[in-house]
Structures are given as structure tokens and as C-alpha cells.
């Protein structure tokens, strides 16, 4: 159910129930792109059922889903249409269009071609753990995550904030220590280093070394670290149940449930109960994994306290860095 996870911390006036969140999301439902519309964003039923609930509560965990539909017109097609319009103007009036007129011609060409463009739709699964006040997004890119954050901010009203989770020790510093460790006893008890990582040097043209299906507890890997290369991605497993790749930005990639985990789920689950069973199993495994991972990174940094990310690059754009609402939208 989850392939990637980005972890955020919720604060302020958050809805007290899934029903309140449902009411808020209903103010921004998804609608397909119109003929001349380039992008459409809105909430859809996570079960995939038409007119279904926008928020599902399973074992106390809330699941929602944001749909993003975009239409893309090839730049070459726009340029050809603009050139045709320019040539027509030159032939009929004997003049060349100015800069403003060229911009208008490009806009007209794009609007004329958009109805012929194919729409591409992606969805981002949103998992809210109300007890831990965590927001987790199954997003493979920061751009998709920002779309979710922006929608929640628009709907939230005042006294509400979303911030990236911060830890006392940065993931990069922790991954460096784990790779440099001489003994498995130096690793966190719940985590094990697997056979994939990426190391990156410094400078204007930094060297990048990638290991895939390669034993990492070697002098070769340690030598790269001694030379100043730092891990940006590292494959880990949690209690021999879940595999994932941790990034320097505290993102979980390539999440996979290891052999036997899903076998514990009843094989005779009815089709209409499969969603609940999958959510219960996935969140039941991933919630304690995240707790153990945060503990391995020294625990979460309290707001206003220094964290391991102090000197790290921002991973949310400036408009959403704090994601504190000040709009006049009604609160949850």
C-alpha cells in the first residue's frame, strides 16, 4: 500500500475526528481537467469507490487520497502553431509581432492545443496517525508532497501547522556512523544495514559512488567515508519484517514487506474487506518502524530546539516550510 513515506508533524487545531477531516476535504473534491485546464487537484475516495468516503478510519488510522491530473502540450507543437500565426500576420499586415503579442500568441496556441492533450493522473495516499499527530505521505517527489500540504493548508483555517519531522541526529550523520561501524553491535537493535547505498563527496563536481547488491560492512566502504564521502541513501531492514531505503532528508523509499509478513493476513479475506486488511497490516507494521527509526536518530527535536537538520538543505519549498495558515478559510 505504501511505497514511499515523507514524515511530517502536525500541530495546532487539528480535527478531532475523521468525520471532521472528511467535512474539510469535501470542500476541495477532485474534478477532471476541463478542455483548456492544465492541472486539477482534489480529494478522492481512498477505496476507489465512486461517491465513497474521502477519509477512511481503520484501527484508529486515517487514510485519504489526493488526485493530481495534468495535461502537457509538447513545446514543439506550441512553437509550430505560434510560427504559423506569426507567418500569417507577416503575410497579411507586413509587420512582425512584438514581444507582448508573441506572448499572447503562445497563450492562444496553448489553449487551442490543450483540448487535444492527454490527461495524466497520479494519486498521493495520505496517512494520518491522530494519536502520534503524524502526517505521512506516500509521495515519490517533493512536488507531489507540496500539493498535499498546500491543499491541507487551504482547508485548515487558522491555528494549524505542518512541519517536516526533525530529529536530534541527522539521518546522514547516523547513516555515516552505521556504515563506519566495525561491529553489528554498534547498530540500533531494530535496524539492520542491507546491500544498497549511495555515497556522495563534496565540491562543485562531487564524486558519487553507488553500491547495489553489495556487502557494505567492508573496508572499501569505510575508506570512502574516511575520504569524505557521505551517505545520501542507505538500504535498511526493520526487525526482518520491512525493508526500505532511508535518505538524508528522512524520507523512506522502496518500502517492501519482507517474505512472510503479508502471509500472516487471513487468506480468506473478502474483496470488500481487503482495503481494511491492507491498511491495518501496513500501518500496524510501519507505525512502530517509524517510532524505532526516530529513536535511532536520537528522537524528535522539539520545536525551537536545535536538530540534526540545522545545516541541512530545506526539503520543503519556502511557501510551505512552516505551512502555517493565516487564511480566512473556515477552520476544521
From TrEMBL:
Keywords: Cytoplasm, DNA recombination, Signal
Protein location: Cytoplasm, Nucleoid
Pfam families listed in its UniProt record: RdgC (PF04381)
Region Disordered: start-end pairs: 300-332
InterPro entries: RdgC
Superkingdom per UniProt: Bacteria
Signal sequence extent: 1-18
Family: Belongs to the RdgC family.
Protein name from the UniProt record: Recombination-associated protein RdgC
Organism: Ottowia pentelensis
Amino acid at each position: 500500500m505504501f511505497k514511499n513515506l515523507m514524515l511530517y508533524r502536525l500541530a495546532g487545531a487539528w480535527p478531532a475526528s475523521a468525520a471532521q477531516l472528511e467535512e474539510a476535504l469535501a470542500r476541495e473534491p477532485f474534478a477532471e481537467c476541463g478542455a483548456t485546464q492544465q492541472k486539477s487537484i482534489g480529494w478522492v475516495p481512498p477505496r476507489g469507490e465512486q461517491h465513497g468516503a474521502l477519509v477512511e478510519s481503520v484501527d484508529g488510522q486515517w487514510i485519504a487520497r489526493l488526485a493530481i491530473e495534468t495535461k502537457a502540450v509538447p513545446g514543439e507543437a506550441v512553437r509550430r502553431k505560434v510560427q504559423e500565426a506569426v507567418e500569417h500576420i507577416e503575410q497579411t499586415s507586413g509587420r512582425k509581432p512584438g514581444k507582448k503579442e508573441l506572448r499572447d500568441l503562445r497563450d492562444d496556441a496553448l489553449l487551442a492545443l490543450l483540448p487535444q492533450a492527454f490527461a495524466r493522473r497520479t494519486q498521493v495516499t495520505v496517512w494520518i496517525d491522530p494519536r502520534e499527530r503524524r502526517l505521512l505521505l506516500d509521495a515519490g517527489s517533493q512536488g507531489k508532497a507540496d500539493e498535499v500540504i498546500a491543499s491541507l493548508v487551504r482547508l485548515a483555517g487558522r491555528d494549524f501547522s505542518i512541519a517536516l519531522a526533525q530529529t536530534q541526529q541527522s539521518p546522514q550523520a547516523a547513516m555515516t556512523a552505521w556504515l563506519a561501524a566495525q561491529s553489528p553491535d554498534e547498530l540500533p537493535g531494530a535496524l539492520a544495514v542491507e546491500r544498497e547505498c549511495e555515497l556522495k563527496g563534496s565540491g562543485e563536481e562531487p564524486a558519487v559512488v553507488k553500491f547495489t547488491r553489495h556487502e557494505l560492512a567492508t573496508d572499501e566502504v569505510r575508506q570512502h567515508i574516511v575520504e569524505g564521502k557521505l551517505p545520501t541513501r542507505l538500504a535498511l531492514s526493520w526487525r526482518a519484517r520491512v525493508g526500505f531505503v532511508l535518505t538524508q532528508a528522512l524520507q523512506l523509499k522502496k518500502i517492501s514487506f519482507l517474505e512472510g509478513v503479508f502471509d500472516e493476513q487471513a487468506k480468506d479475506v473478502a474483496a470488500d474487506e481487503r482495503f481494511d486488511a491492507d491498511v491495518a497490516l501496513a500501518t500496524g507494521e510501519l507505525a512502530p518502524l517509524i517510532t524505532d527509526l526516530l529513536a535511532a536518530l536520537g528522537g524528535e527535536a522539539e520545536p525551537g530546539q536545535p536538530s540534526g537538520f540545522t545545516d541541512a538543505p530545506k526539503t520543503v519549498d519556502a511557501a510551505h516550510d512552516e505551512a502555517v495558515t493565516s487564511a480566512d478559510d473556515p477552520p476544521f
